[in-house]
Each structure stands twice: as structure tokens, then as C-alpha cells.
Amino acid sequence: MNGRPGAQRVVSACFALAAVVLLAGCDTLGYYYQSIGGHLGVMAQARPLDDAIANAKDANDARLAQRLALAGRIRDFASRELQLPDNGSYRRYANLHRPYVVWSVFATPELSMDLHKWCFPIVGCITYRGYYAQEEAERYAAGLRKEGYDAYVAGIPAYSTLGYFDDPLLNTFVYLPEGELARMIFHELAHQVVYVRNDTAFNESFATAVEMAGVERWLAEDASADARASYRSYDERKVQFRSMLLRTRDQLVALYRSNDDEAAKRRGKAKIFADLRAEYETLKTSWGGYSGYDRWFDMPLTNAQLAAVATYQQWVPAFTVLLAQCHGDWKCFYAAAGRIGDLPADQRDAALRKLAPPATHVEPLKADRAGH
Fold first, then answer.
1. Is the N or C terminus of the chain more exposed, i.e. has fewer CB atoms within 10 Å?
2. Pfam families this protein is in (predicted)?
3. 140-197-307 Cα angle (round to 5)
4. Tens digits of per-residue pLDDT, 18-71?
């Protein structure tokens, strides 16, 4: 989706948000109101980037001023070099005074890796449900667990409004290491270029492929030597970590699709998660004790955690091949991705599979029933 002029986008978005509330049933009105109010609250706190930098300098906050200036250079690079939308997104800054902008709830059945879907009038069906207050997300997840679901609550530092609003830079991600900050901005802007209703795996894989290639180019052309070295080390650990999770996800899918009875599947599930914890400790030792992923293991492990990781990675290999076929030409790549996105779901998956197998050894995840 290409962004429209700022004022028109905001008016259109407000009408769309109002329509959502009018169409909602009583049981979902509270959720929609918190979504609308939460987002408008974020937007109300945003200030132009130049003003935010000046305010930081006046407050003798050199670190914030430096990070905002860096973010501004990354934002310019995104449009100039990656052909991402040249609009007001990430040209303002808001300090939300909390660690995440939203908390997303993911859920799967107890003995399945199929992510539950929720459907909404504007964005279609997606495999998560977001809350602007952590306690509300935790409360909703608790209700899902009572229904027998595996539920996982994840703090989310940024999200995209698909070009309807000028999404601001936030304190929740502006202090990330340079490569990660670039990755975040490129990823969220990519959602404004191509977005397919009802297909989270396509959308997140596309944006992930854009961020990966974009960061490589940023590091090669504009980043400092220290930033390049830091990101290489970080990225190597991230690849190893995600590979471990995807292997575990494949083991669980195979278990749940087996002919074992439910009791045996539950025992197998417990063993696979115990093995995952042990493998992580070994991996952490190989990293010299790096503990950046400890928080992920500080909570009970669930199917939903692993399924969420798989959703973001599923079609990345296919989009990577597609970019290579376009010889790195971003306009060609976006147009080709858009054509695939316009296909019916089965044909879309077939086209992606023809480009490259999905990033897991088993069949792609299917959606659980929509609802809640």
C-alpha cells in the first residue's frame, strides 16, 4: 500500500476506525476502543524529529539526540536507497515512558502449532491480538488458557499502520544497536509497500526479507566499522537462536501429527521443551555466556512462542530469491511481490514455494479457527 498525503490519510483512517466501532458487537467494543484510544494516544505524543533533537540537546540528553539523528539518517536512507515510502513515517518521535508500544497475544491449541486467528474489518485476519496495556494482554491470555489454548504474550516495540498514519519513532526501539534500529525501520516501512489481507506469514516474511537485505546495504554503505562488527556478532547469534527454535517447532509439528494418543503427545511435548532448554544452555556457553535471550526462557515455553517465530520466517527464503531474480532492483522486487500477493491464497503459497521451500521442514502452518 502506497501512502497518501498525510491529512487525507488521517481523515480516512479516522473514518475507518469509526466504522470498526460501529460494526463491532458488544463483546468486542472494549477491544476496539482500547486499540483506537491507544494508537491515538501514541500519535498525540509525537513531535517533529528536529524539535525532538533540539529538546534533547536542551535537556543535555546527548545520547537521545544522537540516536534521533541516527534514526533520521536511516529513515532518509530507506527512501533514497531502498525505495521505501517517502512520507512522514518515522520523522517524528514520541516517548511513551514504557518498554513496549503494545503487547501481542499469540495462541495455539494445546497439541497443535497452528496459530489462532482473529479477524478485523480493516486489516483482515491476523495471528495475534494487540493491547496497549500489558495487564489487559495478560488477562486475555489467561482467558485463552482457561479454554485450553497455549497462549504467549510478547512485548512489541513497533508496529505499522500501513500508511494510514505517519508512524513515529518511539523510545521503545530508538536505543537499539544501529543495525537493529535500521532493521526495525525498514521492516515497518515495508508493510506500507505490500500488504495482503488475511496472510500474516506472507506479510511478515516479506518485511523480514526487506529488512535483512536493507540492513546489509546500510552496513556496507553508511554504518561505522564498530556498528558493522557489533551487528555481525548479534546477527550470528540471532540466526543460531532462530534455527534452534525452528528445529524444535518442526519436532513438535511431527509429534502432533503422529498417531500417538494425547497422553503420549503431552509427554513428548514436555520432553521436547526440556531438550530445547538444555540446547539453549549449550548454545549460550558457545556464545561466551551471552544471555540476551534469557527472558525468552524465563516464562513457561508454549507452542505459541515457537509458532510466532515460524510465522515471521516462513517465506523469507522465497522473497530472498525473488530479490535476487530482480538483481537487487527494489522497484522490480516490490512489483513482483505485489503480483504474488494478489494471487488467491493457494496460488500465492504455490508461487512462493516454487521460488524456495519455506524456512521449516514441515508444511506451512495453517490457521486455527477465527474468533474471540
1. N
2. Aminopep (PF10023)
3. 50
4. 444 434 444 477 888 898 899 999 999 999 999 999 999 999 999 999 999 999
